[in-house]
Amino acid sequence: MRIDSEQLAQHLKRGVRPLYTVHGEEPLLALEAGDLIRRHCQEVGFSEREVLTAESGFDWSELAAAASSLSLFATKRLLELRIPSGKPGSDGADALRRYANQLPADTVTLISLPKLDRTQLSSGWFEALDAAGIAVAANTVTLARLPAWIAGRLAQQEQQIDDETLAFLVSRVEGNLLAAHQEIQKLRLLFAPGPLDPTLVRSAVLDVARYDVFKLGEALLAGDAARFIRMLDGLRGEGAAPALVLWALAEEARALLHVARGLRAGKALPQAHARGEGVGHARGVVGGIRPTFRLA
Fold first, then answer.
1. CA dihedral 100, 105, 110, 115 (to 10 degrees)
2. Torsions phi, psi of 11, nearest 5?
């Protein structure tokens, strides 16, 4: 069973499962998911903890040995397996499949992985883990989801901000969720519960945004000039190569040109995208938004 990390707390209220596999590209959410599972296990009596780290040269027989060993100090234990590379290799893949097919009794297993690509997510070893337990995805919080995420975190500490201040906060932490978490924690320490004063928030929050050059097209196609300029300024401050910025924008322009040619040939916009005429963020210009293309 696959769930998002934001669903984990609600899932744990229904009871603990014998196997959790946490993976994803957002370190903060992955760390929080692991901590939540550990804390819940502690609360329900899994008081012993053993940690294995599968780095280069790891002997996968250690996993089987840990599974078969008896607890010395408690009847229930938490067994953690960390695979920093996300690539267990052939021996590890076999060991993980065998482990998933015969989980040890009185043990909750927590497997930690980084972001996995499509091939890894459809591999036999990952599907075996998924089938035997819960796969928790620590997915990136997109810009569209970020305002709700920040508002939710503030609500957890009984604080609220107006929409204009929320938009300001989003602009200061975009692309840097760990720093966003730290800024939210700062607001908890500085200010009392309740509605926050916009002026005080603006003076307290640092500009910790981190911009991805490949997201420039997203702002460009959305017509968000303020964000586009802010991203350019941020990338310049971070030392991004001008040639890379130019290449990213040229890719979006080429994508739009391909879509325009498809439309001129009589294809519907979704078909133009589906057949590969559009690439990059230009593929997202579908549905209710129909841009006007002019070809010379």
1. 10
2. -65, -45
Tell the burial category of 89 from Cβ atoms under 10 Å away from its Cβ (0-12, 13-18, 19+).
Answer: middle
pTM summary value: 0.70
CA distance 180 to 121: 28
The 134-137 sheet, strands edge to edge: 2-4, 134-137, 19-23, 107-112, 77-82, 48-53
Q: What is the C-alpha R_g of the chain?
A: 24
Query: How far lies 109's CA from each of 22, 63, 206, 273, in Å?
Result: 11, 11, 39, 43
Q: Which of 98, 93, 91 is nearest to 123 (CA)?
A: 93
Q: Which residues contact 206 (CB under 8 A, 6 or more apart)?
A: 172, 179, 183
Q: How far apart are CA 74 and CA 49, in angstroms?
A: 10
pLDDT digits (tens, 9 = 90+) for 232-286: 887 787 777 788 878 878 887 877 777 778 778 777 766 666 544 444 555 454 4
Following DSSP, what letter does each residue of 168-220 receive, concatenated? Answer: HHHHHHTT-HHHHHHHHHHHHHHS-SEEPPHHHHHHH--------GGGHHHHH
Burial (CB count within 10 angstroms: exposed 0-12, middle 13-18, buried 19+), residue 249: middle
Residue 127 near residue 95 (C-beta atoms within 8 A): no
Helix axes 61-68, 89-101, angle to 10 degrees: 20
Count CB-CB contacts under 10 A for residue 283. Answer: 16
d(CA 119, CA 130) in angstroms, rounded, equals 14
